[in-house]
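Q: I have two molecules that I believe assemble together. Could you output structure tokens for the complex as a whole instead of separate predictions?
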Amino acid sequence: MSESEKQTALIPLQHIALTKVGAKSLVARGHVDLSNNEEAEAWFNKGMASYRQQRYDDVLHCFQHGIQLNPNHPLLLHNLGSLYYEDHCGMKDNVEAAKWFRKSAEQGCIDCQAQLGLCYSYGIGVLEDHVEAAVWWKKAAEQGHRGAQSVLGSFYDKGKGAPQDYWQAVFWYLKAAEQGDKEAKADLTKMQMRNAEPHNNSLQKWMSEQQYSGFSPGEFKQALTEFKQLQAKAVEEAEQADE
Amino acid sequence: MVIKTGLVPRLTPEEEELAAKREELARLEAQLAEQELLLASLKAELVAFEGLYLRRVGVLYAELDELNARLAELRAEQAGTPEAKAEAAEARTQADESYSSAHCEAAEVQPFTPSPELKKLYREAAKRVHPDIATDEKDRARRERLMKEVNAAYSAGDEDALRRILAGLDSSPDTVQGSGIGADLIRVLRQLKQIRDRIAAIELEIANLSETDLAKLKAKADIAATEGHDLLEEMEASIKVRVILIKHKVEEKSTGGASI
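A: Yes, here they are, computed for all two components at once.
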């Protein structure tokens, strides 16, 4: 071996890993998942085209194929739930609808969380269960769903599915009212009439319990201020009505 | 191409044949060096992409498998049946395998971005050390070893190593010509055949490499990049959803039902 050959022999051989079994199987897995997701997307598009043509059997067929290939396809989950929930040529099946809404809700779909709250509230496709309903209403409410905020307010207001909690009720009614929810405004007014002096001793008490309630004091103060404004406005409107 | 000047004696037909074949040889040698460069680049790019994939997507599969194993173990704890235990053990093996694969040496390979100088050095080295221009078996073995080093230096992006290999070649005896036109012609014809065979073999190897999952994935990622999106990011997102779902299941298993 010449001097230069000795030197070149010292080049660190870069690890050619193409043949490594473990890495190879991780790559294969990614490739299969990716291909399945692409195929699922194609089935979804095909299904949507059929939906526009009102060929609902085809829609279902396409969606079912798609969901087998990608069980987490967000729109497929959402639309499967909706397809079974809507009444298309005798395909309505609330149990199936609730099953798909649940999967979609678990993946964070706001509409499906609210929809599932509704299912549990009225026993649509599932056994009526207010505690479970409250869980899903709250998830949707936290993500900003106006209707869910209003319903959650009423749950806390009435102690339905959750321990009665006046401040939480006000908080969620306010959140919904902020977004223009008329029912929440009406409920707020009703609450205010029921409690002419609404727990005025309890802000301090509430502050000490805020960990339980799960709101930051700042957040709640803001809500309270808004509530007081609404309250004042409601009183004003009532006075005007009296006049 | 060499431009001849001055008086040129008429060539015999054998000499003409030899000259023509030598020209062809020079052309094919250049083509071969180009093909070797293509193959070496493809391999290095694939290795680099594999590293990137393992660092970004592979680790998420490992996380998913870890959560799967934990869930199976929780189930086995609660059920206590032999089936549940076997399932948990299997899930654990898979999780460990995925972890070590996602964190293996291959995951540390950095992006491959050859400079024009590196490519130039590689072409030059490939042309001069290529085993298929060997004149005998001993020469061929020496060249094969050198070619491996050239390839390794290239994929490691080591320009200096390529320069050292080239410097070492100057004193090599392989430029010695055989005696007589007949012998020269035979040698050139043999070299031509060897080079053609090697070019065909490279084409086959490139075709085979392109059929691997890794190459297909990389091709998709490259297309996605030209369309302005990041395929690996999309793959990450889709596995992250699964990770979140299974995390919830693990939490439910360990805490019981939910309420607000």
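A: One point stands out. Helices of chain B lie at 13-79, 82-102, 116-129, 137-155, 159-169, 181-210, 213-226, 231-255.
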